[in-house]
Amino acid sequence: MSAPALALADVACTFISKDDPGQRYTAVRDVTLTVGAGEFVSVVGPTGCGKSTLLNVAAGLLQPSTGSVQVFGQPLTGINTRAGYMFQAESLMPWRTALANVMAGLEFRSVATADARAQAEEWLRRVGLGGFGDRYPHQLSGGMRKRTSLAQTLALDPDIILMDEPFSALDIQTRQLMENEVLELWARKKKAVLFITHDLDEAIAMSDRVVIMSAGPAARLIGEFNIDIARPRDVAEVKMTPRFVELHAAIWAQLREEVLKGYAQQLKVA
Amino acid sequence: MKSPRRLWPWQAGLLVAIFVFWHLMTTPGLLPNFMFENDRQASFFFGEPIKIGGRIWAWFVTEADIYRHLLVTLTETLLAFGIGSALGLGAGLWLALSPVASGILEPYIKAANSMPRIILAPIFSVWFGLGIASKVALGVTLVFFIVFFNVYQGVKEVSPVVLANARMLGAGPKQLLRHVYLPSATSWVFSSLHTSVGLAFVGAVVGEYLGSSQGVGYLILQAEGTFDINTVMAGILVLTAFALVLDAAVGKVEKRLMKWQPKAGETEKL
Q1: What are the tens digits of pLDDT across the range B230-262?
Q2: Which is deepest, A34, A194, B132, B265, by most CB within 10 Å?
Q3: Is 0.90 exceeded by the ipTM?
Q4: What's the CA dihedral at A247, A34, A175, A204 to 10 degrees?
Q5: Which residues of A touch B167 (CB under 8 A)?
Q6: Interface A:B, Cβ pairs < 8 A
Q7: CB-based contact (8 Å) between B158 and chain A?
């Protein structure tokens, strides 16, 4: 069997407060997680449990305090060049048009301009923004900006796609459209996906496997569920199937406690 | 705000009223004296609008000898702006990206910025002579700090998400500088464009006024030496009009270059 696309082994991340070096905060610990090539894995957990930290570690943007990260069997040093990262917050360069944003990654990798332009236009068409290439990000709606981000990430044809609550800022209808689009694009070219969300419905509807994180600080992985629902799926329809309801009940039973714990902790801090 | 179409007659009317008032108060023998003992004193101190108009007419039409001076002042302004901006941009980028250098130089920059730099004009005339160079140098010291602080701020405030995204897309240090830091910094330079062009103009005129052989400031200096208040006033009016034209030109340039920035009230969203 070939090496998994992404393997995190015993990863822990401890942050030291800048103002007071004595203050430490452990965001995640003892995280061991593998994502096979072509596998769609979601991580769900209560807010503030360190899901994004985990993703930054996988992207190579953050060095884990202990533990190791392997990408296709190779230890990760520096930025994970085989991964594309779709951020939760606005990540488009506001001074570039949609087309130039999608071209950016190709440009950075010294693809010839004409070639990069053709590829970027093709990707914009694929995410349904064919006619909007000359718009600046501020002239696009939130959903269109997310689509542009998606095209920007996928245009580089990464082997691993990291997504950090990419649709959390969208309204429910746009969100379902985008989720289906992502599933369709994923089905065409099976990539390893590590998908972070706080929305259990979204996680079950899209993934092969759902991993549950405990409440922070020092969040751990506390459960894992295989989602054995046939593909292709439609995120809206799949929610009506009995198997979905069963899985949802099982996962929620475990997640609920953590959500309540996380909520209680936030109340204590406030 | 009311539409400018309905406001401009009022604006023009106010201008006419000011000149009429000026004319009435200063023309000898037109009104009985109530401020000065002699009816020529008012015109001696404040000039007479009709004579000032005649002076300007002579400068621009009959004698047509002001263009040379205007050109000199314009050259000084543009040179001071160009050199000051380039230096400020370079220094701002360098210091913002190198914490050690900015740490060492911080007190010096603070000192240099809080010093009243106009006072350097006599030193510059000694160093660079009475020609264009000393005026440009004065303007540069004024423009430099405006641009420098804006660029410094601009680089510090680059969105960390945009930065991380560019890194994930494969941008190396040089590409980050060119495609992320520089565009972000230039947007701050352009936001200070009106101020910095204005200060370059101030540097040029003050430099001329303190010692020169050409330029509009020199014309004013000459007239003042012979108590020719009408010419002084004419010079001031020409400078004011010139500054307005310069400001309008800057506005045009800004509009072209900053079209990626959202404007308040823009309803182009789709």
Answers
A1: 999 999 999 999 989 988 988 888 888 777 777
A2: A194
A3: no
A4: -10
A5: 61, 79
A6: 82
A7: no
